[in-house]
Structure formats: C-alpha cells, structure tokens
Write a structure and sequence with these properties.
The structure is a single chain. By secondary structure, this protein is mainly α. It has nine helices and no strands. The longest helix has 28 residues. The two termini are about 30 Å apart.
Length: about 220
C-alpha cells in the first residue's frame, strides 16, 4: 500500500469514526437526562474528520500522491462515517419520550416529519442512503477492477457536504438548542434535504456509469 500522508489521514479517519459512533451510542435522549457533552464531543470529532477528508484529497493532488487505495478507501471511509452517523441517529436512544414529559416544540411538529425521533432521522431514510451508497460503491469497484478510474463527481461532493451539514446541525441542536423553534426547523430541513440530495446524486452517478454498466465502454 502507498503509505503516504493522504492514506495515513484516511486510516486515521476510521479511528475517529469509531470514537464518534461510541459517543452517539452512549447518548440517551430523555427529558432532563441528556448528557449533552457527548453530542458536543461527537460534533467536534465529526468536524475534525471532515477536515482530514479535505486535507488528504488536497495533499494527494498537490504532491501527486494519488493511488488506487486512496480512490477506493477514501470514499469508503466517508460512507462509513456518514451512513453510520445516520444509522446511529435513527437508533432508539434518539427516540422522543412520552408527550407529557417531552419537548414542547418537538411535539407540535407533524408526526411524518420526525416519526417521534428527536434527531428527525427515520429508519427509511437510512435505507435510502445505504442503498445509494451500495449502488455507487458497486459501480466504482467494478470500474476500478476494469482499470477505469471512477472519481467522485461534483454532485457527490455536494451531497456529502449537505449530509455532513445535516449531521452537524442535528448534533448541535440536540445538545445546545433542544427547544428553540428555528434550530429545530434547520435540523428538519437539513435532514430532509440530505435525503433528497442523496437520491439525486445517485441518479447522476448511475447516468455517468451507464455505458460502463451496459458494456459499451468506459463511463464518460
């Protein structure tokens, strides 16, 4: 393996992801019993992981340290971090308490928007995000196996930014602004926008790989 700095940062991001998931798993959303520091710590860890993601790509391009390992593992680690974050936020420890003791602002929202999840992340959203990532990963893996580079597209990068913003907005709102209406709506809007961006970027990738998938040649 090409063990230069970009790949070291990529591997380091896996460690950060493990710590991040441990923080989310230890959190319990209950009225009057929220260890907010766990979400604040997870927020900081996610930001650091995002910075390393930007740095490893920039360093690889600047010093021409690109490699097949980086092209495959770097987006894989991103997927683990993002999909894992959404899966954790859809866990039972982020479900809302009973209405009589719950957050007054959260309970005034339509049920379909949150489905009684404090994070606003619903199980079906995780399925959609995972399905998109499986499809793109399969296409990229096949492309690389044929010796055809299949780097990220602008649509994929925009999708990643929106997903990351949604994760950070959710963590910050739950930890610091639990009953502030505008913060709740920002969280809701960013989560739903992340799902829409995920679906649209998936169509872009599939369209780009159409020729490769039907055997007519490399993707344009």
């Amino acid at each position: 393996m090409n063990w230069k700095l970009p790949n070291q940062l990529t591997v380091g991001r896996i460690v950060l992801a493990a710590v991040f998931f441990a923080m989310l798993g230890a959190y319990e959303h209950r009225w009057g019993a929220r260890p907010a520091w766990l979400l604040n710590a997870a927020f900081v860890i996610y930001i650091v992981a995002g910075i390393t993601d930007v740095l490893d790509g920039w360093i690889a391009r600047k010093f021409h340290w690109t490699s097949a390992f980086g092209r495959i593992v770097d987006p894989f680690v991103d997927k683990v971090l993002v999909v894992g974050a959404f899966a954790m936020l859809a866990g039972s420890n982020f479900s809302m308490p009973a209405p009589l003791s719950g957050d007054p602002y959260e309970w005034n929202l339509p049920t379909w928007l949150t489905w009684r999840m404090a994070s606003a992340v619903q199980a079906w959203m995780v399925v959609v995000i995972m399905a998109r990532e499986f499809i793109v990963s399969a296409v990229r893996g096949y492309s690389e196996s044929q010796g055809i580079k299949f780097p990220a597209t602008p649509a994929g990068k925009i999708k990643m930014f929106i997903q990351s913003f949604a994760i950070c907005a959710t963590l910050f709102q739950l930890a610091n602004l639990p009953a502030v209406p505008w913060a709740i709506w920002v969280k809701l809007a960013s989560v739903w926008l992340a799902v829409v961006a995920t679906v649209l970027s998936g169509f872009v990738y599939v369209g780009r790989a159409r020729k490769l998938l039907i055997g007519d040649g490399p993707a344009s």
